[in-house]
Each structure stands twice: as structure tokens, then as C-alpha cells.
Amino acid sequence: MQAIPDTLCYLNGEYGPLRDAKVSVLDRGFVFGDGIYEVVPVYGRRLFRFDEHLARLNRSLGKVRIASPFDRAQWLERCRRLIDAQAADDQLLYIQVTRGVAVRDHVMPPDLTPTVFMMTNPMKPASAEQRHQGVTCVTARDFRWERGDIKSVSLLGNVLARQISADHGAVETIMFRDGFLTEASSSNVWVVHEGAVLGAPKSEHVLEGIRYELIRELCEEAGIGYNLRPISEAEVLGADELMLSSATKEVLAVTQVDGEAVGHGALRGKPGPVYAKLYEAYQRAKTLQSI
Ligand code: PDD
Question: Fewest CB atoms within 10 Å of the CB: 8, 164, 245, 262?
């Protein structure tokens, strides 16, 4: 087993070392995957687009009918205490809320106290080589459930999907439902077509990444077209450029899919100009939009 670090974490009102934190075996998060989570990037000890992440956390809680345990100030206070205790300046803050502890029964018990767990880990950014060369992906049918819009801790479908790429030495699995792009196992996917950025429409099949709105803003700033519409598998495979986005990947160029180079002409298999502009704009946004 990997050693669990002793960084400070928060669990149900207490702060203590991560390696000592324990929950009941009857926690519904453990028994049913009955809970939701968030992952917030932290740059220079400041939270990036915190209010957007908090809004999505509250949307997820509402969709699964768990009452929000804290208000904004209470969340922020807990986040800051963990961030201050972490050695690295750039971090990934994790928040998990489950329905709580109860005797096993599928029906949601009324009046449970939600379990709240928070930790922060050093950010693991993409390597210089990945930034320079882009990354490799594979494709698969999207066999997950139909509520991908909920940031649920029930991630077995995503875990199975991610492992397909891991088994191929690739960084992500890009998925299609009925022949149309949904997302990747833990990232959103963006296609560049005739200079514009295309993304899958927001729906119950896709997690609305916090980068959906951010990329729209960055495109607007850079004078790049941005459009959400159904994207066929053929359009993904024939894209001029392909990108992933997530809290950890920021924006990351995909230069190979299922063993084939992405793109056309001299740029084939290389990160493209739209990626380069968005990556640069993203770095500026990090300094301007962190609190
Ligand atoms: N994953 N789609 C899925 C299925 C995801 O799990 C994620 C994020 C995204 C991108 O969302 P955002 O831009 O808000 O990070 C899309 C996080 C990082 C995770 O599970 O660790």
C-alpha cells in the first residue's frame, strides 16, 4: 500500500493528519457512493475560480438532495486553513460531502448529518514534455450512467473508462454516446474546427467543467470563435486541433488519438495555435482570478 501523507485534512468538524482520518463503514459514501465532490485548483495559495466551484458543489448537492452543510464564508475558512498547512504553493483542494452514516437502506434517510471531508494535495501539473508535444488519448463508447452532470463520488464508470487509456499508456479516454462526443473520463474535450473552439452541449451526459465558462471567456478575449453543439466521432478524429480541460490539466493539447496523429499539414501531431493562445490566456487568468 502507498503511504498516506500526514498533511492536514478536515473531517466532520475536526482537523488532523490525513493518515489518521476515519469514517464509519456505514457511511453512505462508502456503501453506495452516495455523495458528491469538488476539485478546486490553488495557485500561489489562492483559490482559482472558487465561486464557480462552490456554485457547482451546491448544484450537485441540490441534485442529490443533500442539504448544503456550510455557507460560503464557512467553506472558505476551512479551505484557507488547509491551504496554509500545505507545503506546496500550488495545490489541488478536494471537497467531498456524502449523505452521512446510516443503517444500509437504499431509501434516503431523512435528517442525516452529511459527512464533510476536505484535503489538499500538491498540484501535479502537466510536464514540460506534455506541454511541448501534446498527449495521447484513446476513444471508447461512453458506458457510464446518464447523470454525468452530477459530480458524484460514484466514479466506477469513470475509473473503468480511465483504465482503458492507462492500459494503452495514454492520458485520457475520449468517449462517445450514440456516435457523439460526451467528454473524457476526468476532463472535458474541445475540438478546433476552422479556427473556432467547439465543445459538446451541456447536458445530463457531460459534467459541466468549470473550464466550460472559462474557455468561453478566454476565447472571447482572444477573438476565437466558441460554439457548443453536437460533435460527431468523425469530427473529433478529423479535428484541426484537439484539447482536454480540467482543474489539473488546465488546457492540454491532444496530439494523438487511437494511434493516429491529430491535425493536418505541418501541424499534424503537434500542439496547434489555438491551444497556444488559450494556454497563454489561461496563465494570465490564473493570476487575475484567484482569491
Ligand atoms: N475531474 N468531466 C469529468 C468527468 C471530470 O471528472 C472533470 C474533472 C471534468 C472537468 O471539470 P473541471 O474543469 O471543473 O475540472 C470533466 C476532476 C479534476 C477530478 O475528478 O479529479
Answer: 164
Rg (CA), the chain: 19
* Ligand 1 centroid to residue 178 C-alpha, Å: 22
CB 79 within 8 A of CB 40: yes
* CATH top class, domain 8-122: alpha beta
- The strand pair at 250-257 and 135-141 is best described as parallel
* Closest residue by CA, ligand 1 atom 1: 186
B/e letters for 119-144, b = 16+ CB within 10 Å, e = fewer, are bbbebeebeeebbeebbbbbbbebeb
What residue segments make up the domains of the chain, in order of their start? 8-122, 128-288
* 211 CB within 6 A, ligand 1: yes
Does domain 128-288 fall under CATH 3.50.50.60? My reply is no
- b/e map of 253-262 (b: 16 or more CB within 10 Å)? bbbbbeeeeb
- Tens of pLDDT, residue by residue over 230-267, are 999 999 999 999 999 999 999 999 999 999 999 999 99
**Ligand 1 closest atom vs CA 183:** 2
| Mean pLDDT computed over 111-127 | 97
173 lines ligand 1 (CB under 6 A): no
The model's pLDDT over 129-152, given as tens digits with 9 standing for 90+, comes to: 999 999 999 999 999 999 999 999
Ligand 1 pocket check for 251: Cβ under 6 Å = no
Nearest CA to ligand 1 atom 16: 187
Over residues 271-283, mean pLDDT:
97
**Residue 151 annotated as catalytic:** yes
Q: Give 54 Cα–ligand 1 centroid separation in angstroms.
A: 14
Q: What is the C-alpha to C-alpha distance for residues 24 and 273, in angstroms, rounded to an integer?
A: 50
